[in-house]
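Practice record 12: protein with adenosine-5'-diphosphate.
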Amino acid sequence: MKKHLLFLGAPGAGKGTQAELLSQSNSYLHLSTGELLRKEIEKDSILGRQVKDIINRGELVSDELVLELVRQKLYKGNNGWILDGYPRNLSQANSLSKVLNEINQPLEIVFYLDIPEEVLIHRLLLRGRKDDTEETIRTRVDIYKKTTEPLIQYFKDLSLLEYIDADRDLKTISSEIKQKMA
Ligand code: ADP
């Protein structure tokens, strides 16, 4: 069974939901950079104050900052982990690869949750998180296409990519994921 997983896909593709389900059933660490950053905002920490406006505009926070968050969590012991929302660009992918080398826990599989753009915009508007306004969604989808989508080819070249049709119901998707990681 694979223990070092990554979910890739547009905002609204369902990465968080699937990662959460899987991490609970396998006692893996679920590492969502978006979730970690939102918690810092809630706590009104120094870090939270630093990133609040950036996140509410739908832009990416700095690579150094998210790397530090991820590094801290991964360095602690774990049963396995699922990365969700990280990496989001090639520079983050390169930093991640260094950290994973250091801790000797290579990435084993990347699930790319694919979904048509109309569907994801609809899902995000329904979700209604603070950074789910129409304008912010547009920014996030644009950034996703420009900076995150190239990672699909990056992981394909490393023979790690597994394609998942994410425009189906939750359970169908999660059972396909479980099959593929077995
Ligand atoms: P979604 O994938 O639905 O856009 P996330 O919860 O993954 O939502 O991320 C929310 C916001 O947090 C992003 O729009 C961005 O501002 C910030 N963020 C999350 N992960 C990263 C990352 N790896 N690098 C930079 N910014 C990030």
